[in-house]
Design goal:
The structure holds two protein chains of two kinds.
Chain A (H helix, E strand, L loop, with lengths): L1 H12 L4 H21 L4 H12 L2 H10 L4 H19 L1 H30 L10 E8 L2 E7 H10 L3 E15 L5 E8 L3 H5 L5 E2 L14 E4 L1 H8 L9 E4 L2 E8 L14 E4 L10 H4 L3 E8 L5 H16 L11 E6 H6 L2 H33 L1 H9 L4 H37 L14 H24 L5 H4 L6 H37 L10 E4 L10 H17 L3 E7 L11 E4 L3 E3 L2 E2 L8 E7 L2 H6 L3 E4 L4 H5 L4 E5 H7 L9 E4 L1 E2 L3 E2 L5 E7 L14 E5 L13 E6 L3 H15 L6 E4 H8 L1 H35 L1 H9 L4 H34 L11 H27 L3 H5 L3
Helix pairs in contact in A: 2-3, 5-15, 6-13, 6-15, 6-16, 6-25, 7-11, 13-16, 13-18, 13-25, 15-16, 18-25, 18-27, 18-28, 19-23, 25-27, 25-28, 27-28
Chain B lengths: L10 H10 L4 E2 H11 L8 H14 L2 E7 L5 E7 L1 H32 L1
Antiparallel strand pairs in B: 1-3, 2-3
Classes of the chains: A alpha+beta, B alpha+beta.
Chain lengths: 887, 114
Amino acid sequence: MIDELLTRLRFFFSRRKPADLDDELQFHVEQATAANIAAGMAPDEARRRALIDFGGMERAREQSFEQRPGWWLGTVAQDVRYALRGFRRNPVFTITVIATLALGIGATTAVFSVVDRILFRSLPYAHDDRLVSFGLVQSLEKQEFTLGGFFYEWRDNQRPFESVTFEHGTSECNLSEANPVHLQCAEVAQNFLPTLGITPILGRNFVPEEDLPNGPKVAMISDGLWLSRFNRDPGVLNKAIMIDDHAVRIVGVLPGDFEMPRLQAADIVRPAAFDVAAQHTVNSGIGWPMWAFARLKPGVTVQEAKAEMEPLFLHTQQWIPAQFRNEFKLEVRSMRDRQMQEAYTAAWILLGAVFAVLLIACANVASLFSARGAARERELAVRSALGASRGRLIRQTLTEAFLLAVAGAALGCALAEILLRVFIAIAPTGVPFLADARLDLRIVLFTVLVSLLCAALFGILPALEKPRATALIGRLAKSGTHARLRSLLVVAQIAICMVLLSGASLLVKSFWNLEQQNLGMQTRDVLTLHVPLNWERYPSGQAYMSFYLRVEAALRRLPGVTAVGMTNSLPPDANSWHGGRRLADIFVSGKQQFAPGIGGTVVARMVTPDYFRVLQIPIVQGQGFTEEERSSSGDFIILSKLLGARLFPQGDAIGQHMQFANYNPYFVLDGPVFTVVGVAADVKNAGLAGEVEPEYYELRNNHHPGNWDQHHIFLLESSLPVSVVTPWIRSQIAQLEPTAPAEIGVLSQDVHKLADRPRFETALLGFFALCGLAMAVIGLYGVIAFVAAQRTQEIGVRMALGATRLDILRLIAGEGVRLIVLGGVVGLGAALIFARLLKSLLYNVGPHDPAIYALVALLLALVALAATLIPARAAMKVEPVEALRYE
Amino acid sequence: MPPSTDLLQGTLDLLILQTLALGPMHGWGVAQRIQQVSKDVLQIGQGSLYPALHRLEYKGWIQADWGNSENNRRAKFYSLTATGRRQLEAELDTWERLSSAIGLVLSRVPEASA
């Protein structure tokens, strides 16, 4: 076996002289002649007989050659050389095909690599398909959560899960040693890591004793912290670090790809160390909030698990106060669903766009190859007549397709790499995992294969039919056979292009609306300042209050600062922390205003008087808060216009008294009585795209120190540039609280960031639409140019018979216009259907906005018409005499 | 000239190997030899002889050397290699099993019908 292979290899590399074979055959004939003479024939006759006996000398020679190993490869090299010559002769075809393939492959690969990370990435947990997130949902919190009082009951009685765990959320914490660092600390159950299937890369998981109240204080650190703080020193194990002034022992290091199930940042993971029995007494008897995750038993589906958990949920539901018991629902969903949320729609739409572009590219390549095939019918007939076998002709075509696909793929990969970098650069931070998107070789291979298949399939069609003998004698290559197919392909391209373009335009319009909308407040040059405080150093609301009041006073003393407002949260981001109430919890003069259970919610903020001044939110009725009211003993409130109109349709809001229901856990109406002093204009408060929600502002006053906590943002109005004021603010904070790093931002930039995701989606889809348009136009141009060239002689005849140049233009362009209209109409229909999928991404523009569709149709028609007119004009200018002599 | 009997696929290779087992020989010699031994029943078409010789050479079963013929003319002599010899034995084995099996089948037919 090996011997044979080696011999073949030897022959493969050593070239043989054809003369050897001739000598050998010659010798044979001479021997035969000699034998014939010996048998008594005349010399001439003897030689003649010998030659006749031998048979086809040439055939024997060729067949002997074909035995040579690598002979087959030689013919491939021949095919390649032939193909390359053909490409050189026909550069327009070659460049078009390669450009189309490169664009198609590049765009598809780049976007798929991005989307793949979002939609199909494997979560960094073992067997992540069996992980679920479960808990309660209600109108104020639509992401499932749970409470200590429920969790342990569920954990001890559930059946569908192998193991159940929770995390208690992450909170800010400080590494309070030399060089203090502001970190995120997560608190988790003892079995958190094993349930998710995470193994520490160094050290061990927590042991049960460490998860008990007053147990030993231990922590695991993230790989990032291990690197940045300890330079990956393995001696970090069992080392004590100071976290918020407490010594904590490091027991392990988390893997580099570790992430919390809800994707919060976490530098330190600690055991929650909950007192299980206390969960029915703490936090008004419902237990601490937590987020539960579980690993399904093998073979159990998410739906089955939900059905099995339902009775348990109904059992524990009785602990929820009756007023809103029915508002709570059980939610069980896969971890992936929980993580991806709204990214899903966008990712699927991008994926759809990618396939649309790939389809257009394939249709383009197919129609180009088909046109070329038709033009070469005669050439194929000649080659076939000269003895090329059908197999050889097909192989020739495949070689060409393959060469073009390889060139296109190489260029496409380079393009994909560039595009991917661009995407990552412009992508918002909110798109999960984009930063580590990589070109996926499987995808490259897939797209290359698809385009190769397109080229091969349509390239082979003409080669498959035995070339007709008439093709040899015909003066003109007639190619009616595939013309219909090519027309269909062009119609399809235009239709797909129409869908892409209208989708992209809708997103652009929506994005424009989003950017240009009036937020109801001033964001330019408004500085925001957040000082993350270590709650252990501030044991009471009183401590927070005195610190924040000192900061406020210090900031006011800064030159150039004209106003300093405080608030506990900032619009318009709906996802950042902010207070909320149910509409049903509002009591005006002791009377409930809305029936419980309707689920409407109100945004609540605690602000100081300057909040309205800095953000320039106008007070439309009554007046704003005053500095005197802050230190008075009254409680004051300002309603948003929307809430004012809901509560007081008569417009008599000013001076009314309101109260809010409390649940401890049962309903009481013991809160302070607020006096309405004013009504403020509405502000975007539910995200850039969300409907404005009713809102009220409580005056943050000094006689309820218990209301003061870590949620505190300063807003500064300054007459000096941001860059000048920033260092002053930092030094002020450093003097007042050296352990807390000041976080300073500009409000308009924060708002700008909120639009990052729509900007990203719009840019991507827009890019695709333009790619698609470019390719469809190339395809259309190619087909019309081809038709015009095919009909050159016919044009000559027509002109000789008296047709004007305009008639010719009409003849050729008419063909294009027919395709455009047909494709446009089909595309419009499809676009109207597909636009519905976009609905959730659109802001202030309907999915069937007539202006958009009209504009897109017009644009497409114009561009397509231009692509038709160029070759049609060329046909019009043909000289009749030349055209008649064509060929 | 009587029509030559069609050779079974692959049999030509076997015949060439067997012939060359006697000693080095040129193409003409191989053809003559087979014809003589088979009493003119097997006539090797030159059109298939040379491709077969080349094929065997490429496989490494036979090797070719240029030498002088009986009448002192330069000729290409083929001889069996060690691999070729092993191959010949294996093929002879197969052939014997095959032909005896065919013989069995053919001789049973008249008995059954008798």
